[in-house]
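User: quick one, fold this
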Amino acid sequence: MKTARHDTREHILTTGEALCVQRGFNGMGLIELLKVAEVPKGSFYYYFPSKEAFGVAMLERYFAAGHAHLREALDEQPGNQRQSVLDYYYHSLNRSQERDFTGCLSVKLSAEVCDLSEPMRNALDTGSKALISTLAGALERAVRQGTLWLDYPARDCAQNVFALWLGASLQSKISRDSAPLFSAWQEMKRMLPAPT
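Assistant:
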């Protein structure tokens, strides 16, 4: 029974995420979500006391998956950490093209919900900070390895890389073109210089 309950919750979150990527959080009606997910209203409210609580859970789930993917690409890879960071973002560029620039939930919801929901803004902030922290750890390892030269703290650099990619993701979504992401990746190579 516990597995069925967990599966129902996951199904609602997965369905809701797909709808939010298409329509935004405010554009996704609860009735539409229930219809597409094929679950009764009572099932939704069993797991989520409100649409806002659902939004928080969806963002936490999204960032947890993204963070696991980032850790797998950086923390669990031996070898040149600078190159691992660059490779991670290059693969992200390719994934964005494959999804036709519509797949990033954090880009989709950041501007939409930050002024409307403090709990969802907190979920976005917490998730972003976790990603930045993992990225900073990889950059610190790269400096210790001697594969990266930085003249300022790795955490500040990680914040700048994250902000650069977030902005480029938004611009690519607007233009439906990979050029902003590719330019950001090129700039990232300059921001993360190998020692000479």
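User: anything notable?
Assistant: The first helix runs from residue 2 to 23.
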